[in-house]
Design brief:
The complex is a heterotrimer. Helices cover 44% and strands 14% of the residues of chain A. Chain A contains 17 helices and 15 strands. In chain A, a hairpin with a 2-residue loop joins β4 and β5. The radius of gyration of chain A is 24 Å and the shape is globular. The N and C termini of chain A lie far apart (65 Å). Chain B is mainly alpha-helical. Chain B has a domain of 150 residues: MetI-like fold. Chain B is 72% helix and 0% strand. Chain C is globular. Chain C is mostly helical. Chain C is 67% helix and 0% strand. Chain C has one domain: Orthogonal Bundle (MetI-like fold). The chains are: A alpha+beta, B mainly alpha, C mainly alpha.
Chain lengths: 414, 286, 274
């Protein structure tokens, strides 16, 4: 008899769930770095809405997409999920997200305050499937000490492409400390791909009037304007040799690390990079400028960021919508975001008052979202593989983009 | 002698078979179903298979997969057998050496991969630094960026990661070699290498048979190392099939094509295994 | 008694050891480095000054301690469960011939062949149906897919290496099959059992994808997820990852150190004499 009791207890232990979840629990999938903030806001929300209990489940960045997909496909979903704006539309395309516009408007969300480009990242088939809360765009981060060392004015970053190439060449060589230095960090490989390379290379094509897909999603990746823009990026490594030899294994993180140890003098980056650089190299003087653009044209950047989404199978939709509206207040986004809030009025808050962020704030104006078709992920992979061919020197940029164009067309016609 | 009653062997294997069937059959059926339907659930026959086979980089990926598997297994075996035999000898500190040798296998895959990527880095990597200090190379080598060195480098990492497993299996297998066989050989004037060739290796045959098969299967499904280090790059020079499958499903959200790839892959591996069993099967020995 | 080898054995051994351990050594010293010294050019050997910040982060400010407990329970459970099933199955495959044996053996291998990506959603549905998501039992069962086929496969090989005359002699003396299994065969393949247990434990200890999908909150998550938690949105806290990896790797190496004595040779010496 005792044996049976022990056995039952053992099985009980094994079957034990962590918390006794009731059906009224609103489940919020946030990211692990936001866990504390989410908990604080959840507590605040629960005070205002005593009939709702919120359970926070923090996600890690690794495997996030697969985790969300598994949940959506299985029908066993949370109520509110933090997703990167780049996958909002592919998720909507699966048909498993809730359209939000009318419900959020009814809750008083001020859509006029939200960065318009951010809303585009959540719009599919004229329906809104997400609520942006975080936005960011790259700016040019440079090493003022290296500028001085190369005889450049540390308060005047390059504006045009011609200046940019000239600056980068001057910065490349042996510094006065005897160490090798490179002018600019080109991203051609590493772990966080193809995203990192896309975010750094595509703006060059956009600024020149080209791109991968045109306004009607036609393939323009090998148009003269696109190739010329991309060629500038590739030439930085292959022709002008202002990018380090490790280019084909460097993602954004690797480039930031090379910047931090003084090996690379200019990198594109977000405000979060500034924080990391300061932590690792407190003595490094950081300067930030707009991304350089062709003469007579404007800068451009890809709009990064995060949105809230609510699955179609969510058990507590009304409460989730209230929570999303609650989080759309600029003062809350100002705390929750790791870069900038999507509600633009939040930019005036103290957290963003450091003048070093000015260039990044201005770049938001020039930030455009990525194209929103479902095959975008595959298209970026094709682009990335051909970009690497060009960087390897095994094909010219035109040839590589021609191959990419053919593959993309074949993909879209399937 | 025909057995009208059920062989006791069946009872021995029954619990395990039931468990495995329970866990595996549903995913298998689900995968096959996915591979012949489209995202809406309609039956589309072999269309998914057509799409994945005619993808442009298939030949390169096939070659890479073959290179990776064959290269990895060969070096895992060589290093593992060598280590197992050496660690079987008696010497001071043997227990410590054995534990240390285990480490590559025990380190979590992602951490090992990222550490190697870090060490192989052209500019801040310690491997280039050491080789240049020792005068073996004159300038930094792009281990993971040069198409000629990337696959060998990845094979080296895979060999490093798994050879301790082989060593442990070999070590365990060597414990059941009767001492008389060694003595008989020595009486015949054998030296150490003769002992290896004529006593140890033959006795290890059943273990090596099983181990090799496992190594092949694992290499064929090994995503972590390559995915974390190069992502299959540069330009697909290190892309292998299992990564394609993962990417199809979870980055492109193309579950049907991923399923088709899985089915194809499964059929090919099964053929390989069947051939392997036929050639090396020990079933006749008992 | 094994002959003592001459000193030359140390040369290839030392090389192998160096190759095996160097990356780990690099990881270990890096876990004591502050952030700025992790990527210096040229690479820096010793931290200057060394810092305990990474270990503090891991032990006191992360979920790693709790995940350590979870991982231990799940890995141990899966290992032992697989062992029990596998011993019987392997003995059946090794010592008996019956119809459908090759097919069954092939099916055992099949479990290893299913790519992870395509297996997750169906498994999730199965576990969800039985309310086993986010439970120890759920993960232990799922991990059987990883541990059982291999355990069966390897133990079959080890059983086969025992000369059948030993067992037949016992049967002639009146022992039952089960008795032979437990009293004669099992003790002889003890090293093999240790090896298989080690494999199962390590495989489940480091497994990420299943754990990520089937363990949904703090009280169930495992160490590999804990490692991933050191990745913030824009970077990885490398120092903490290295420190955590150290804490994940050392216990297993120490366990193996202790289990060394089970790797005993000469178990079958004298078996075939007479």
């Amino acid at each position: 008899m005792r044996g049976k009791l022990i056995l039952a207890a053992g099985i009980g232990l094994l079957l034990s769930h962590s918390t006794i979840a009731s059906a009224a629990d609103l489940v919020w999938w946030t990211m692990s770095w936001n866990e504390q903030n989410a908990k604080n806001f959840a507590a605040e929300f629960m005070k205002e809405n005593p009939d709702v209990t919120i359970r926070i489940e923090p996600n890690v960045a690794g495997g996030l997409q697969s985790r969300i997909l598994v949940a959506l496909q299985s029908g066993d979903t949370p109520d509110l999920i933090d997703v990167q704006n780049g996958i909002n539309i592919p998720l909507a395309e699966t048909g498993k997200l809730t359209p939000l516009r009318k419900a959020l408007e009814a809750e008083g969300v001020d859509f006029n305050d939200i960065l318009p480009a951010a809303l585009t990242t959540a719009t599919y088939n004229d329906e809104l499937y997400g609520l942006p809360f975080q936005v960011e765009a790259h700016a040019l981060i440079y090493n003022k000490g290296a500028y001085r060392d190369a005889g450049l004015d540390p308060e005047r970053p390059p504006q045009t492409w011609a200046e940019f190439i000239e600056y980068s060449k001057k910065l490349t060589g042996t510094g006065s400390d005897g160490k090798q230095r490179y002018g600019y960090g080109v991203s051609g490989g590493g772990a966080d791909q193809p995203g990192n390379a896309l975010f750094r290379a595509l703006p060059f094509m956009w600024m020149n009037g080209g791109g991968i897909l045109g306004p009607d999603n036609e393939v323009i990746i090998n148009s003269p304007a696109s190739v010329e823009g991309l060629k500038l990026y590739v030439d930085l490594f292959t022709e002008h040799k202002v990018a380090p030899p490790s280019t084909l294994e460097n993602d954004g993180n690797a480039l930031r690390r090379l910047f931090t140890v003084g090996n690379v003098a200019q990198i594109p980056g977000a405000t979060s990079d500034i924080g990391r650089i300061r932590e690792a190299a407190p003595d490094l003087e950081i300067g930030v400028g707009l991304l350089p653009h062709p003469e007579g044209k404007e800068p451009a950047a890809i709009l990064g960021g995060w949105n809230f989404v609510i699955p179609a199978d969510a058990p507590n939709k009304e409460a989730a919508i209230k929570l999303a509206a609650f989080m759309s207040k600029p003062e809350r986004q100002a705390v929750y975001t790791t870069t900038f809030p999507a509600a633009q009025s939040g930019l005036s808050m103290e957290r963003f008052a450091d003048p070093i962020m000015n260039a990044h704030k201005e770049m938001l104006k020039y930030a455009k979202p990525q194209p929103t078709i479902p095959q975008w992920s595959q298209i970026t992979q094709i682009f990335y593989a051909q970009l690497q061919e060009a960087l390897l020197g095994s094909a010219s940029v035109q040839e590589a983009m021609d191959v990419a164009a053919d593959e993309i067309k074949a993909l879209l016609s399937n | 002698m025909t057995l009208r009653k059920i062989s006791p062997g069946v009872w021995f294997i029954l619990p395990t078979m039931l468990l495995l069937v329970g866990l595996i059959v549903y995913p298998m059926i689900s995968t096959v179903e996915l591979s012949v339907t489209d995202p809406a659930g309609t039956f589309v026959g072999l269309r998914n298979f057509n799409v994945v086979i005619s993808a442009p980089s298939t030949k390169l990926i096939l070659f890479n997969t073959l290179f990776y598997v064959v290269g990895s297994v060969i070096f895992q075996l060589i290093l593992g057998i060598l280590a197992g035999i050496l660690l079987n000898q008696t010497f001071f500190g043997r227990a410590l050496f054995r534990s240390l040798m285990l480490i590559p296998w025990v380190i979590p895959g992602i951490v090992a991969a990222m550490t190697w990527a870090w060490m192989f880095h052209t500019d801040y990597g310690v491997i280039n630094f050491l080789l240049m200090q020792l005068g073996i190379i004159s300038g930094p080598v792009g281990w993971l960026t040069n198409p000629n060195t990337v696959m060998p480098a990845l094979v080296a990492v895979n060999a490093w990661k798994m050879f301790p497993f082989v060593a442990v299996m070999v070590l365990a297998g060597l414990q059941s070699v009767p001492e008389e066989l060694y003595e008989a050989a020595r009486v015949d004037g054998a030296e150490f290498r003769h002992e290896i060739w004529h006593v140890m290796l033959p006795q290890l045959r059943p273990v090596l048979f099983s181990v090799t098969l496992l190594l092949v299967i694992w290499a064929l499904d090994g995503i972590t190392i390559i995915y974390s280090m190069t992502g299959g790059g540069p330009a697909n020079r290190s892309m292998i099939f299992p990564i394609q499958i993962y990417v199809q499903a979870f980055e492109y959200f193309e579950f049907n094509r991923a399923a088709a790839l899985s089915v194809l892959y499964f059929v090919i591996i099964s053929a390989v295994i069947a051939a392997y069993m036929r050639v090396f099967s020990l079933d006749r020995r008992d | 008694m094994k002959a003592q080898r001459r000193g030359w054995i140390f040369v290839p051994l030392a090389i192998l050891l160096l190759v095996a351990v160097f990356p780990f050594f690099w990881m270990a010293i890096s876990s004591f480095k502050p952030l700025g010294q992790l990527y210096s050019i040229p690479p820096q050997w010793l931290p200057n000054p060394p810092t305990m910040r990474n270990f503090e982060e891991v032990m006191f400010r992360s979920n790693i301690p709790r995940y350590f407990i979870n991982s231990t329970i799940i890995s141990l459970g899966s290992t032992l469960l697989a062992l029990v099933f596998a011993i019987f199955a392997a003995y059946g495959f090794a010592r008996f011939n019956f119809r459908g044996k090759s097919a069954a053996l092939a099916f055992v291998l099949i479990g290893q062949l299913l790519p992870t990506a395509t297996v997750i959603v169906p498994l999730y549905l199965v576990l969800s149906y039985f309310n086993l998501i986010n439970t120890y039992l759920g993960l232990i069962l799922v991990y059987l897919i990883l541990t059982l086929p291999l355990s069966v496969w390897m133990l079959t090989g080890y059983f086969r290496s025992i000369p059948s005359e030993l067992e037949e002699a016992a049967i002639i003396d009146g022992a039952s099959r089960l008795g032979v299994l437990f009293r004669i065969s099992l003790p002889l393949i003890l090293p093999g059992i240790v090896a298989v247990m080690l494999y199962s434990f390590v495989a489940t200890w480091n497994e990420f994808v299943f754990a990520l999908s089937f363990a949904t909150d703090r009280t169930m998550k495992t160490l590999p997820i804990g490692l991933a938690e050191f990745s913030t949105e824009f970077d990885i806290d490398w120092g903490a990852v290295m420190a955590a990896s150290l804490l994940m790797t050392l216990p297993i190496a120490i366990i193996f150190l202790v289990l060394q004595k089970l790797f005993v040779g000469g178990l079958m010496s004298g078996a075939t004499k007479g």
